[in-house]
Amino acid sequence: MDLQSRLERFGGPIQPPAAAHIAADLDRGRRAVRRRRTALTVAGSVAGVAALGAALAFGGGPVTTPDRTPPAAASYGGLTLVAYQGPQPKHFVIDKVPAGYFVQADDYGGLTIAPDRVRHPSPGVDPSKDPMYDPLDLQGKIAVYVEQQAYHADVSGEPVTVGGFPAILHTVDTTRQLLIKVSPTVFATIQVDVPLTRDQILELGAGLHVSQEAIDRAANATSSKHD
Predict the structure, then answer these.
(1) Staple partner for 81: which of 38, 94, 96, 179, CB 3.0–4.6 Å?
(2) SS3 of residue 2 by DSSP
(3) Pairing mode, if any, of strands 96-98 and 81-83?
(4) pLDDT digit string (tens) for 12-61?
(5) In this structure, what are the phi and psi dihedrals at residue 176, rounded to the nearest 5 degrees?
(6) Is the pLDDT of residue 227 over 80?
(7) pLDDT tens digits, residue range 74-98?
(8) Which regions of the chain does DSSP assign to beta strands (E)?
C-alpha cells in the first residue's frame, strides 16, 4: 500500500487547495518580500528618514507639488523614459518605462519592471545566485503594487500631486517610493531602485493607471497588517 493510500485511510482523501487560498498565500508572500526590502533599507538610514519632514495627511483635499527638488535628486539619473510598447498588464496601464526595461511579472497586486537582460533566462540560470531573474526580488528594478494605506500609516516625505491624485515621495538611501492615493484606503506604490530622477519618477507615476478591480481587491483584503 502506497503512502497516499495510507494517508487517505487515516485522514480522508487529500483535497487540493482552493485557488483563492493559493492566491491569498502568494499575495501575502509578495507583500512580505516588499516590506522586508523596504524595512532593510529603512533600518540602515534612520537619520535620512528623520530628515524627510512631517507626515502627509491624506484626509484633506489635493496638494500641490512644491517648487523645489530635494538635494538627493542630483545623485540620480542615467535612464531615459520611453513610451511603453509591450502588451499592457491585465490590471494596470503603464504609459512609460525606462528604455531597455520590460514587465517581468504581472498580477492584480502589482508589477515588476526589470532590465531586458533578464527577459530570457537560460536553462541554467539560478535565481538564488542572480536575484535579477527572480520577479519577487526588487533590487535593481521598479516595483508597482497596490496595498492598503494602513501599511504606510507613519510614512513621511514630500507631498506631491500625481495624475490628479495626492501622493507622497520619500527617499531612503538609493530607494525611492512614490505612494499615490488612488482611493480613500488604497495606495498605488511605485518603488524605484534604478537611476531615475525625481521628475522621472513623478512622470512614471502620472502614466500609471490602476484598474478598479485591483483597487477593490486591495481595499477589501482581509489579511492583517502584520502578515
Answers:
(1) 96
(2) coil
(3) antiparallel
(4) 555 555 555 454 455 555 555 554 444 444 433 333 333 332 333 333 33
(5) -115, 150
(6) no
(7) 346 789 999 999 999 999 999 999 9
(8) 81-83, 92-94, 96-98, 101-107, 110-115, 142-148, 158-162, 165-172, 175-183, 186-192, 208-210
Instruction: Give residue for cell 496595498.
Output: 147
C-alpha cell at 128: 538564488
pLDDT tens for each residue of 121-133: 888 888 888 999 9
- For the stretch 13-46, what's the b/e string if a residue is b when 16 or more beta carbons lie within 10 angstroms of its beta carbon? eeeeeeeeeeeeeebeebbebbeebbeebeeeee
CB within 8 A of 132, min separation 6: which ones? 114, 115, 117, 118, 139, 140, 141
DSSP 57-83: -TTSS--PPPS---GGGGG-----EEE
Q: What is the pTM of this model?
A: 0.68
CA distances from 52 to 49, 97, 149 (A): 5, 27, 19
Percentage of the residues of the chain whose pLDDT score is greater than 90: 49
Measured between alpha carbons, how far is 132 from 30 in angstroms, rounded to an integer?
16
